[in-house]
Specification:
The protein is an alpha/beta fold. The chain has one domain: D-tyrosyl-trna(Tyr) Deacylase, Chain: A (3-Layer(bba) Sandwich), CATH 3.50.80. Helices cover 24% and strands 37% of the residues. The strands form two sheets. Strands 1, 2, 3, 6, 7 and 8 form a six-stranded mixed beta sheet that branches. The protein has a two-stranded antiparallel ribbon with strand order 4-5. The protein is globular and about 45 Å long.
Length: 151
């Protein structure tokens, strides 16, 4: 499982011109799945993501997690392209990305786990052509890979 974490001042996602998710300050998460990902992987990745101390405290030091920031939320977007393999040629291969029929149930479960921790979380729609807008704060972007973190 991979998650691209971006600290944002605001973020939104539109489908067919309609805003389906929007947050103010918080985290924008792009989430992708691969073979072997399961509920334990999702729980560990979610705990890691939500506990990252990447928000500045009153002194400007990155000391605060999402839970420490008043009114912060999360916008979560499914993103199979996190598993793009660009080592050969010019067209990325997505052979390591889990297909939609297997990854959609994982994404739906991840959404439920996220909502249990962050009730104000917003989401894109799995498989939709989404237009994501954001104001990155910092910018502050972190790439998490479960294979690097937990294996």
């Amino acid at each position: 499982m991979r998650i691209l974490v971006q600290e944002v001042l605001s973020a939104s996602v539109k489908i067919d011109g309609q805003t389906v998710g929007s947050i103010g300050r918080g985290l924008l998460l792009f989430v992708g799945f691969t073979d072997g990902d399961d509920e334990d992987t999702m729980k560990r990745m979610l705990e890691k993501t939500l506990s990252l101390r990447i928000f500045p405290d009153v002194t400007g030091k990155t000391n605060l997690s999402l839970a420490d920031v008043k009114d912060a939320s999360v916008l979560c977007i499914s993103q199979f392209t996190l598993y793009a393999d660009c080592r050969h040629g010019r067209r990325p291969s997505f052979s390591k990305a889990l297909g939609g029929e297997k990854s959609e149930p994982l994404y739906e479960r991840f959404k439920a786990l996220l909502l249990a921790s962050v009730p104000s979380a917003q989401f894109g729609r799995f498989g939709a052509d989404m237009k994501v807008g954001l104001v990155n704060d910092g910018p502050f972007t972190i790439f998490l890979d479960s294979k690097e973190l937990f294996e």
